Amino acid sequence: MTKSSAAVRTPAVSEPNAREIKPGVVAFKRARILEEASALFYEKGYESATLEMLADRLSATKPFLYTYFKGKSAILSAICEAGVQESLAALDRIEEIERLPIDQLKASLREVAEIIVARHEYLVIYQREMMNLDRADAQRILRLRHEFDLRIGNLIENCVRDRSISVANAATMSVWMGGLLTWIIHCYRPGSKRSAEAVVDQAVEACLRLVGLA
Amino acid sequence: MTKSSAAVRTPAVSEPNAREIKPGVVAFKRARILEEASALFYEKGYESATLEMLADRLSATKPFLYTYFKGKSAILSAICEAGVQESLAALDRIEEIERLPIDQLKASLREVAEIIVARHEYLVIYQREMMNLDRADAQRILRLRHEFDLRIGNLIENCVRDRSISVANAATMSVWMGGLLTWIIHCYRPGSKRSAEAVVDQAVEACLRLVGLA
């Protein structure tokens, strides 16, 4: 989103050529479609929602939607995949920035908790509509979630190795950390009594308690 | 279920009168309907499932179903409510049996974890089909879940008071324990690689780690 809106704003300043602008515009339009689709699926449920309704909300046409997505099911899949994809990207980024395993683990848990808060709607839709995903999409997303667990398991393992924490089974703990992080969607929704920051703090603390920290 | 099957088996032994048998038979039939409805909703999704399909699976008729439930939505509500109702009943039972707060907490977590394993299908349906519940039913179930959190929070509070554990905020911890227990439905399904016992043990251990035990 940041990248794409930057690309949209750029022309006035530096006149980039069309080849530079296009990927940003495509990403921006895809993101807008997903945002509206998510609001629509969240309100009406996937099965009751139609591409006509979605096109209406975007003041666009069905053919416009088909330029960006194969169909309703591809939109659902992109929504369900976003949270875990962004989380994996965050883990990559943090691995570059933080040197100590314990700092990597802490920063990763915090960033993922923040992604889950920001993607509340997307994740509720994933939990609700999982069975409406195409089989191949559902399996691909499960593989990504499994990869996420493995990566968190490795971070825990590295902390155990340098003795900053002590747990018997890093892989198991990573699964329960995933559970705590996912539970955020039941503790927080935009406009809820608890603030997003408080819920993120609590979730990170709970994860660290699992491995004897905090 | 235990009560009702006992009632069904009793006649040969002690010839109870009709008034004794009837509540057991009603409970048994309701339970059978919920069992089949759960399997049906789990496979097909709530919206695609029909009362005709359900009656077929039970070799019964639609009027038979209406004797026990107002309609499809009442069946969904009973399925979604079962897990938390059974959990609250377990907490009542354990309060009678165990004296020490810490033993009450441990026994409660274990029994609830076992209920969640046993009610895997019901709880998956609750997560998926929440938005298909009648508003009043959805709110009633939320209140029950809230009551469950409060009761676990009280158990933690009692442990803090007698110094068997030390946590800053018992209420908050009870919410995250709820998250860990609910995560069981993603870690275990009948026939999965991990055994039910192993998952229950892990979940209880994870909950106790949250409050600095295990």
TrEMBL record, chains A, B:
<dbReference type="InterPro" id="IPR036271">
    <property type="entry name" value="Tet_transcr_reg_TetR-rel_C_sf"/>
</dbReference>
<dbReference type="InterPro" id="IPR009057">
    <property type="entry name" value="Homeodomain-like_sf"/>
</dbReference>
<dbReference type="Pfam" id="PF17932">
    <property type="entry name" value="TetR_C_24"/>
</dbReference>
<dbReference type="InterPro" id="IPR023772">
    <property type="entry name" value="DNA-bd_HTH_TetR-type_CS"/>
</dbReference>
<keyword id="KW-0238">DNA-binding</keyword>
<feature type="DNA-binding region" description="H-T-H motif">
    <location>
        <begin position="50"/>
        <end position="69"/>
    </location>
</feature>
<dbReference type="InterPro" id="IPR041490">
    <property type="entry name" value="KstR2_TetR_C"/>
</dbReference>
<keyword id="KW-0805">Transcription regulation</keyword>
<dbReference type="Pfam" id="PF00440">
    <property type="entry name" value="TetR_N"/>
</dbReference>
<keyword id="KW-0804">Transcription</keyword>
<dbReference type="InterPro" id="IPR050109">
    <property type="entry name" value="HTH-type_TetR-like_transc_reg"/>
</dbReference>
<feature type="domain" description="HTH tetR-type">
    <location>
        <begin position="27"/>
        <end position="87"/>
    </location>
</feature>
<dbReference type="InterPro" id="IPR001647">
    <property type="entry name" value="HTH_TetR"/>
</dbReference>
<protein>
    <recommendedName>
        <fullName>HTH tetR-type domain-containing protein</fullName>
    </recommendedName>
</protein>
